[in-house]
Amino acid sequence: MPRSRxxxxxxxxxxVTLLPAGVSEAGFWSNLFKGKxxxxxxxxxxxxxxxxxxxxIADKPVVEKPEKPAQQAAAKCDPAKLRIAVDVGHTxxxxxxxxxxxxxxxxxxxxLARRVVEKLKSEGFAETKLLITEGKARPSLIRRVASANGMxxxxxxxxxxxxxxxxxxxxxxxxxxxxxxxxxxSGHSLFVSKENPYFETSFHLAQLIGRELxxxxxxxxxxxxxxxxxxxxxxxxxKDVGVYRYDHxxxxxxxxxxxxxxxxxxxxxxxxxxxxxxxxxxDMITNSVASAFKKFCGVxxxxxxxxxxx
Length: 310
Hints:
- By secondary structure, this protein is of the alpha/beta class.
- The chain has a single domain, classed as Zn-dependent exopeptidases (Aminopeptidase), CATH 3.40.630.
- Helix content is 31%, strand content 15%.
- It has helices spanning 5-15, 25-32, 105-122, 137-150, 199-215, 250-253, 270-276, 279-296; strands at residues 84-88, 129-131, 155-162, 170-174, 177-181, 189-192, 235-238, 243-245, 259-266.
- A 7-stranded mixed β-sheet has the order 2-1-3-9-6-8-7, with helices on both faces.
């Protein structure tokens, strides 16, 4: 059913703050209030693809003895030639979680991903591409993986924003509307899959991003390691910077290149939703990602890794 004028104004007021520089407001507003489908279904493993060709970075497609630390000095790459696919999580049709103020996750993902691409290009990563996928949940997962594999990307980075399981949500009223929120958890998180043939490089890149975020005093979401998360619980591979194991996530396990998923922050948390919409927080994240990639390619020296405890 169509949104009321009041609700439309509210959602627009929050979402318009997400516009990156240079993006047409007219086009953004015209798409913002289109009807959306049901929430994305749980992601299940897809059939494994054929053995991948080796990316343009140094790594061995071996995941034996997964408990050992990732290779810390594996990558030596030319930023100008490194093909980075920056994936916009979810689609217009299946737009992911809803924020505490009823703004779709997809809008947050799209705007932050655009900023990430712009920043990486400005730092010399000329072959960075924005990957936007259409369609409903399950088909879009297969399609985005096929797109990344088809473009022979060297790195796959998927941009998302977090929520919480329904059992943690509470009711509140905002501008006369009954909505859901949870202020219990906050922070970003990074996910990699040991089913990815380039797990060690994926893990190394995720650590680099996590360290850059930590250096800006941004905390990671530590609840995923807790039993209270139930089926949403994940193994914490690096407790210092918040890198988790998520083996059967389609976009991580079936991409034929190193792959990392970044949950940039919790939009179901009322304070963090406001922060995630701010240019200041978006700049902190994009700067962190760009700095991590420069360290990944050896353009900047990487900090000494801390000991990891599973």
